[in-house]
Design brief:
Number of helices: 14
Helix content: over 70%
Strand content: under 5%
Structural class: mainly alpha
Distance between the termini: 38 Å
Order of helices and strands: HHHHHHHHHHHHHH
CATH superfamily: Na+/H+ antiporter like domain
Number of domains: 1
Largest sheet: none
CATH topology: Na+/H+ antiporter like fold
Number of strands: 0
Oligomer: single chain
Length: 390
């Protein structure tokens, strides 16, 4: 009998497993902020940014680089596995079910980006940060939802998760297309060749995971040196992992996702928060164009984009709102989409690689916008009825 293939049960388990990591992430972000504004700030800074005496990968010379370019590739591998699972057997498996979350996610990326560009219009050096407020942090948002218990209908939880998954697809595409400064064609061709071999293994029915994992490591190394951000390799590798059952009745994709989801949620993402969320609060002006554009993109642009998409689709008959959801449920969910944290911090570091002070200001905007979105979303959902009227 096939095991681990129940999409609904798997989704429930993963949603539950992501709620606790969201809370751990909040704690790590708070710890990073405290340490960055304490007498230990220099030691904390040196821990992540001081170059190693020796590194097995020459391009990764600091702990910060190993976390952002190495461990985060595993995080993106998990994201890719989740995306593939949702398209094959989950909420994105058919047109009718994917229509609303796809439209909502697209609007929820476009409006924050336009909000940011509008606020930073007179500052050409800041235009590269347009994608920072376009992301949604799944773990953080689910952590907030977990604190609200039965006030949120399961359909709204699932809708938020699905929007965030589609949002991740958009964020990955943005990283690959807009945050690649230069390309090394030799390494790029090697990466393409390795990816083709992995896809061929899937095509010819290889269900054993070890060959995919070995090739995924080679793919990561090639992409790291190609000029494309190394984390994209994690997503590409995930798309080649087979979903079909092996000889033991297991799905290789689901088995790998189960093996990595807790490592990603409890180790990798919190480490990323510790390494990237620390910002000295006196070093930047929170009302400057960059942090203000990011914060308003998250707190205002996200909710406007998602709400307009949901209500517009309902009004035009394109798609129905999640079952049992009132206006307050939808509004609270749209506000929670403005929690950009992990992906926003990640894109911020890529957008201003040669301007450390701008990266720090971007952090102020991400942290401020995400915190306000979380508090506002929780407040609105607390006002919503526990059981939506029929």
């Amino acid at each position: 009998m096939a095991r681990n293939l129940g999409s609904g049960g798997l989704r429930s388990k993963l949603a539950a497993s992501e709620a606790a990591p969201g809370m751990v992430l909040m704690a790590c972000a708070a710890l990073a902020l405290v340490l960055a504004n304490s007498p230990l700030a220099k030691a904390w800074h040196d821990l992540f940014l001081h170059p190693f005496a020796w590194s097995p990968v020459a391009r990764l010379e600091t702990l910060h680089e190993w976390i952002n370019d190495g461990l985060m590739a595993v995080f993106f591998l998990v994201v890719g596995l989740e995306i593939k699972r949702e398209f094959v057997m989950g909420a994105l498996a058919d047109n009718a079910r994917r229509r609303l979350p796809v439209i909502a996610a697209m609007a929820g990326m476009a409006v924050p980006a336009l909000t940011y560009l509008g606020i930073t219009f007179g500052h050409p050096a800041l235009r590269g940060g347009w994608a920072i407020p376009a992301a949604t942090d799944i773990a953080f948002a689910l952590g907030v939802l977990a604190l609200l218990g039965s006030r949120v209908p399961p359909s709204v939880r699932l809708f938020l998760l699905t929007v965030a998954v589609v949002d991740d697809i958009g964020a990955i595409a943005v990283i690959a297309l807009f945050y690649t400064a230069s390309l090394d064609l030799g390494w790029l061709m090697l990466g393409i060749a390795v990816f083709a071999v992995m896809a061929s293994l899937n095509r010819f029915g290889v269900r054993s995971l070890p060959p995919y994992l070995v090739l995924a490591a080679v793919l990561w190394f090639a992409v790291l040196h190609s000029g494309i951000h190394a984390t994209v390799a994690g997503v590409l590798a995930a798309f080649t992992i087979p979903v079909a059952l092996d000889s033991h009745g297991d799905s290789p994709l689901l088995r790998l996702e189960h093996a990595l989801v807790e490592v990603s949620g409890f180790v990798i993402v919190p480490l990323f928060g510790l390494a990237n969320a620390g910002v000295a609060l006196g070093t930047g002006d929170p009302l400057a164009a960059l942090p203000l554009g990011i914060a308003l993109g998250l707190i205002l642009g996200k909710q406007v984009g998602v709400m307009l998409a949901v209500l517009g689709c309902e009004r035009l008959g394109i798609a129905s709102r999640p079952a049992g959801a009132t206006f307050l449920h939808l509004w609270g969910m749209a506000l929670l989409c403005g929690i950009g944290f992990t992906m926003s911090l990640f894109i911020g570091a890529l957008a201003f690689t040669d301007a450390p002070l701008l990266v720090e200001e971007a952090k102020l905007g991400v942290l401020g916008g995400s915190l306000l979105s979380a508090l506002a979303g929780a407040a609105v959902l607390r006002m919503a009825p526990r059981i939506a009227p029929a």
